[in-house]
Amino acid sequence: MPTKNYVLALDIGTTSAKAVLFQKSGIVVAEHENAYPVQHPHPAWVEQDPHEIEQAAIAAISTAILKSGIDQHDISCVGISSAMHSLICMNEQHEAISPSITWADGRSVDQANHLKEFAGKDIYLKTGTPIHPMSPLPKLIWMKETGYQPYLQAAKFVSIKEYLLVRWFGTYKVDYAVASASGLFNIHTFDWETSALSAAGITRDQLSEPVPSTTVCQGLSSQLAERLSLPQDIPFVIGSSDGPLANLGIGAINPGDVAITIGTSGAIRQMSAKPETDELQEIFCYGVTEDLWIMGGPTNNGGIVFQWMKDVLGETEVERSLASGSGSAYDLLTNLAADVQPGADGLLFLPFLNGERAPYWDADARGSFIGLTLAHRKQHMIRAGLEGVIFSMYSIGEALERLAGKPSNLFASGGFARSSLWLQIVADIFGREVHVPVSHQSSAWGAAWFGLYALGDVPSLAAIKEDIPMKESYIPNNVNHELYLQLYKTYSELYFSLKPHFHSLSALQRGLGR
């Protein structure tokens, strides 16, 4: 049988589905992205339509293949990546009877706080998932306590990736990493955790079968294969969640290799040969394979902070970009921020616009500019915002270092890696050289590599390091690093000083229906 030259990845993200076609060397041949909307039917609720996501995924795959101009029979397989923590209720007919509730949904704040106070530590130490409204476990408890009708009628509870596998292959399977992120999976036994199931009021029969990331699903219907522009028998490899796949796709898989990924949200992660948790409950630890775990912490506030600054402060830049028809408002705002000295003349920004996950796990945290004076202008606020996101990542990195040891290599991926200013800020704050791949689609390449590994086309996961096209790295400026360390001392104390006021304001905002 002739060797097939290409591999396809489907990356199901928070706001879009992307299909990326790679050569087996890691070079991107073609890609296509389709966005889908997010609904907020009530304050703090964040939902999506699973059917819309499925249609976006189908269109992304077929369009990417069409763009490439290659023969569909020259694609070896499809590897799948997906965002974590989504939750969908399914009926006996394998139909979604609820929206897809995303990680950003905050309806279960009270349930998460109660669980954390009374049983959360024990469940966390078994599952590695911090008790927080992001994960399905508190959401299920909310459903149980409020009599949520889809919960009462559900035959199965699945993530968005599982939903697609059911729709396309009629099978209920879940990879270890997506299962881990549910808060219902024991990272020591690689089975569903009884105490978490009891808290959620569900049984293991209502969940999918946990399987390795190399599991293959095959046998598309002729109609679906035609819509996807793929052969009916092409293997779909179940892959993993976007976090570990981003580490794999960037080559951050050895001890000391730390990856920073920032898209809409963000995370800092490191692979581990054994599960590590502690009673501080600051970081996650998810199973990836039976001998590989990923540790780290997510932030709610990555690129979404820059988007908010563009929407609130960037009206002029938006108009200029539209009028010129070239460039983007983000580029114009970044150019403004680049003219400001590091540290934004003593202006700090706490980027907790969407509450916060690691290391505080506080849905009531709120954003704040600290140190504003009459001398500060819009460009200072933009710079402080970009720096604030990286200060947040640095604080998570401190918690990760406590369990995983000091980093030796720092890698960057995600949409933010297209900004040279933001990458230099990372290098200067962390005081380490930052390595950046040519493609920012690291999760997709990780998913594609798992596919190649499952088919025996590559010898190991670690071998991916030889097939990651890299571009220039960013060298830290030691003077800037020392300044940032001074500022970070203040930054690191601000959350705890303001925490009671955040909670008072959050309660007021909820009372006002915001």
Automatic annotation (TrEMBL):
Domain of life: Bacteria
Keywords: Kinase, Transferase
Protein name in UniProt: Gluconokinase
Pfam families reported for this sequence: FGGY_C, FGGY_N
Domain Carbohydrate kinase FGGY N-terminal: 6-249
InterPro entries: ATPase_NBD, Carb_kinase_FGGY, FGGY_C, FGGY_Carb_Kinase, FGGY_N
Source organism phylogeny: Bacteria, Bacillati, Bacillota, Bacilli, Bacillales
Carbohydrate kinase FGGY C-terminal domain ranges (all copies): 259-454
Family indicated by similarity: Belongs to the FGGY kinase family.
GO molecular function: kinase activity
Coiled coil (residue ranges): none
One record GO biological process: carbohydrate metabolic process
